[in-house]
Amino acid sequence: MEQVVISATGLYTPPYSISNQELIVCFNQYVQRFNRDNADKIAAGEIVALEESSVEFIEKASGIKSRYVVEKTGVLDPERMVPHIPERADDQPSIMCDMAVSAAREALQRAGRTAADVDAVIVACSNMQRAYPAIAVEVQTALGIDGYGFDMNVACSSATFGIQAAVSAIQSGQARAVLVINPEITSGHLNWRDRDSHFIFGDACTAILLERADKATSPHQFGIVDVKLKTQFSNNIRNNFGFLNRGDESGIGKPDKLFRQQGRKVFKEVCPMAAAMITETVQRSGLTIADIQRYWLHQANLNMNLLIIRQILGRDASATESPTILDTYANTSSAGSIIAFHQHQDDLKPGNHGVICSFGAGYSIGCVVVKKI
Questions:
Q1: Stretch 119-137: mean pLDDT, rounded?
Q2: What contacts 218, CB < 8 A, 6 or more positions away?
Q3: What is the C-alpha to C-alpha distance for residues 87 and 94, in angstroms, rounded to an integer?
Q4: Complete DSSP assignment for 118-159
């Protein structure tokens, strides 16, 4: 089978950023108005008063200090608390397509490639803008790629699962090179009125170009050493929004049609799963943990990542060993581990090894061992 490399990555960062301070001003205004408007019911014990948020609470709970979003005025309007994202005409590129094309072009430029060198596009992310046609086919056409494209969704692990699909396509001879693109507009599925999660998400798009090793000429190559995927069903991270919602009007607008999670259960269950998965994948590839110089982990929660690395290494990792980007990007779902990889790879030396690992709803875990060429 053909050897496969990641020859380049690309990143699109939205133009707007929301600080924790900006976020809590809006959230607390909403809470104060809610408690004032429902004072009688709260006093009668019919409903529970909402609790205000704070910068200290957010940073202690998550390590997040700010997040990028495609639109911020709607999010920071206490009367709305939803981004303003106008619908576009069918003959205009979708917003996810625009993000994807921007990230993909950077990846192609870094790899010294053009659209003519690519045979497939996989758009892998948590939420698709529409049911069909596939965003990937739209992106493929916008880039001028003569081949095929398809969408896939494995929540926060979509990028690593997309890498596996790309590797298989290249190894089988189906494609010379594949773009795996992860446009995440998580601000659209976040409940900005939920104190436990209103700070979690941000928007971004990453792109990963994979190709046959014997054809790659990029100065940014990482060989794919091994890929391991795992899923296990859990309701602890869930979003029930879907095309069948219109079949039961009573559910329209309910909180379960947005992101929701049981955070403590997720923390307790996913951390040991991710640590075990990384350890097993490294060993299966013929390496030891001591052979790994870098860990690019899913960027959901700083405390989770600190614990996972501690379980793997038996000690705390340095900021270099396990870089963090969620302090400024927040949780960008499938894009998070790839943003960390994109921003923290150039200092590695040929022969160095690293692990890209994502984990999230499903539960789903994807682990990719790479070697700097």
A1: 97
A2: 5, 7, 8, 110, 111, 112, 113
A3: 9
A4: --EEEEE-S--SSSSS-HHHHHHHHHT--SEEEEE-BTBTHH
| Rg of the chain, C-alpha, whole Å | 21
pLDDT at 143: 98
pLDDT tens sequence across 23-32: 999 999 999 9
pLDDT higher than 90, residue 2:
no
**1, pLDDT greater than 90:** no
* Residue among 171, 124, 95, 70 at smallest CA distance from 335: 124
Amino acid at 291: D
* Cβ pair 42, 245 in contact under 8 A: no
Question: How confident is the model over 323-370, as pLDDT tens digits?
Answer: 999 999 999 999 999 999 999 999 999 999 999 999 999 999 999 999
Report phi then psi at 263, rounded to 5.
Answer: -55, -40
Amino acid present at 25:
V
Site of tokens 């600080």: 19
59 has a pLDDT exceeding 80: yes
Q: Please confirm, yes or no, whether 156 is among the known catalytic residues.
A: yes
Q: Which residue shows structure tokens 């590797």?
A: 167
- CA distances 90 to 55, 94, 130, 148, Å, are 41, 8, 11, 21
Catalytic residue, chosen from 97, 125, 156, 271, is 156
Q: Which residues pair with 297 in a beta bridge?
A: 357
Q: pTM score, two decimals?
A: 0.96
Give helix then strand counts, H and E, for the chain: 10, 13
